[in-house]
Design brief:
The chain has helices at about 10-20, 35-40, 55, 65-80, 90-100, 120-130, 175-185, 200-205, 230-240, 250-255, 265-280, 310-315, 320-340, and strands spanning about 5, 45-50, 85, 105-110, 130-135, 190, 215, 245, 285-290. It has about 350 residues and is of the alpha/beta class. Strands 1, 2, 3, 4, 5 and 6 form a six-stranded parallel sheet that branches. Strands 7-8-9 form a three-stranded parallel sheet. Helix 5 links the parallel strand 3 (about 85) and strand 4. The protein is globular. The structure holds zinc ion.
């Protein structure tokens, strides 16, 4: 089965290796994702996020400079292997790569603060190839407020306990955030609601005129973390023709309070989320968004080469071939075809 994955933090993984003085590249490494593992896992397309930790970066370099450096890393690494993978900026590029037997790589931005609230920077990053954009990571910025729970309602573990979870619902997109939304739609950039707070997500559901994504978010009814989407959000996303990517981060798969000692998350948890999302939003709104290299993975599907395990599991769970096709790549490609120019 072909794989289209909407989110990984492998660029950050490469940066961290380089900070350690290692000359780690994208072809082969000990991260979750490299080109060799993607080939083994039969990948069609991987999004590579430019993740920025605002608080850690602010004393190191200006955020836009950090963004330019990550874009350069992405372009430089991918262009070393033109027979294996092609950078995509349009839907046609994806089709051309498929015809040429190559995988596709798309650049995305995870943390709108990298643009410092300037539409000029958004447009420059578009020119560099950014085709998907989260308004925030886990900090408030010029554009929007991130997912939060109301202090005092947090379980001691820092994760939301079932029944105690109270999301912050007052702060959404700022005026500038709405300007970015409109400019992204004009440019043909895909809006990504992952990491946004509840109000921001509903702001996008209400104002978006094209399909959008939650690139790496699961179902809140199955695991109550504020990063996951409520049923109302899933329905809103599905009604706009959007798609949400299954995230393998343990904290988004199962509430910690439901774990038995020594027990870990498993592919069964992934299947529970997928089933729920299909029940709520239909088969057309579910895709993949691994969060590989952005989270610890504590089950057997420990990297790109292992993706056939999920395919096998879904077959065992009696999903049809059509359903598996949609989950693995067809829904994601449908949205890309509709939004990218
Ligand atoms: Zn993330």
């Amino acid at each position: 089965m072909r794989v289209a994955d909407m989110h990984c933090d492998t660029l950050l993984g490469l940066v961290e290796k380089r900070v350690q003085g290692l000359d780690t590249g994208i072809f082969e490494n000990d991260l979750h994702i490299d080109l060799k593992k993607m080939k083994q896992g039969n990948y069609l397309l991987q999004n590579f996020a430019m993740f920025g930790h605002m608080e850690k970066l602010k004393d190191v370099m200006p955020l836009p400079e950090y963004g330019f450096r990550l874009a350069d890393l992405f372009l430089t690494e991918m262009r070393k292997y033109p027979d294996l993978i092609g950078i995509v900026k349009s839907y046609q590029d994806i089709e051309d790569n498929m015809k040429a037997g190559k995988m596709s790589a798309m650049l995305t931005m995870e943390e709108g603060a990298i643009c410092e609230g300037k539409l000029e920077y958004l447009r420059i990053f578009y020119e560099l190839g950014v085709r998907m954009f989260t308004f925030t990571w886990n900090f408030a910025n010029e554009l929007a407020w991130p997912n939060r729970v109301i202090p005092g309602a947090l379980a001691p573990s820092g994760l939301a306990a079932p029944g105690k979870f109270v999301p912050e619902t007052e702060h959404g997109l700022t005026e500038k955030g709405f300007e970015f939304l409109a400019e992204m739609e004009r440019l043909g950039m895909i809006l990504d609601i992952s990491h946004l707070g509840d109000k921001g997500i509903f702001d996008v559901i209400e104002h978006a005129t094209k399909p959008f994504v939650a690139s790496h978010s699961n179902a809140r009814a199955i695991c109550g973390h504020a990063r996951n989407l409520s049923d109302e959000m899933i329905r809103g996303l599905a009604e706009k023709g959007g798609v949400m990517g299954m995230n393998y981060c343990p904290a988004f798969l199962r509430d910690r309070e439901l774990w038995s000692p020594g027990q870990n998350v498993s592919l069964d948890d992934v299947v529970r989320h997928i089933r729920h999302i299909i029940n709520v939003g239909g088969i057309d709104c579910i895709g993949l968004g691994s969060d590989y290299d952005g989270t610890n993975i504590s089950f057997e599907m420990n990297g790109a080469a292992d993706m056939p395990m999920l395919e096998q599991k879904l077959r065992e769970e009696k999903f049809t071939e059509d359903e598996i096709d949609k989950i693995f790549y067809k829904n994601v490609l449908r949205v890309y075809k509709e939004v990218l120019k």
